[in-house]
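Bit of a strange request maybe. I'm writing a small parser for structure token strings and I need a real example to test against, not something I typed by hand. Could someone generate the tokens for this chain?
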Amino acid sequence: MKNSMRLLAVPTLALGAIALAGSPAMAAHDGTYSSTLGQLNGTTGTGSITLDVTGDQATVDLQVSGLAETFMDGPYPHVQHVHGGAAGTCPTPDADANGDGIINTSEAAANYGDILTTLTTSGATTPAEGLNLELGGQGGTYSIQRTITLDDATQEALAAGTAVVVVHGLDPATAGVSEDVFNSPSDLDPELPLGATSPALWGTLVAAQMAAMPEGGADPGVATSSSNTAGMIALGGGLILAAAAGGTYMVRRSNTKA
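Reply from user aminoacidic:
Good idea to test on real output. This should exercise your parser:
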């Protein structure tokens, strides 16, 4: 009888171990992730973001203010994304490889990688929507509050601490470069100005349980108050412009500030 009970116990324990091994992988990404967004490329705006994650669902609360207000006489469309798969850090001035005064999206590729999720105001959130200006935040002050589905890559980046939120669209009045440089062809789409697609705000998404760090601090790249970064890499399709008549788009310097 004792031998029979031992034989039954072995597979039971083994099945329990398998179940426990599988559970953390499903729940490891659950929790609240947040960041206070830092500034890049002369930006004077501010922002913050919180993601409440359960499984593959995330409730997003993004608040942005003080960015460029107008684009082609209309509200400035700011696109934003969760990037990942790289270091999750901010590019230094040395990242400006061509020395034009703007760290563009391609130059920051090694810092925080490709787009994983596009934080659109509505509709799809795939990387293909990365340059969908109609689904970007409009004007200099806006918020995005919605629940979205996260793919596996985004969840893995959150768990690894390398998920970075980037808001794009510089203000020509504060970028610190000439109009010729600001309006030069973007590295992402030559029909758009470089300044309009370059990163303005950034922040590494940090899990709430990591917010209270031991005395002595932590790596600045994973602090609750993030420093700057850049990038909108591998933007696939989805380019929709309110005035998509073709040609070159110019952003003029304006004295209007948010």
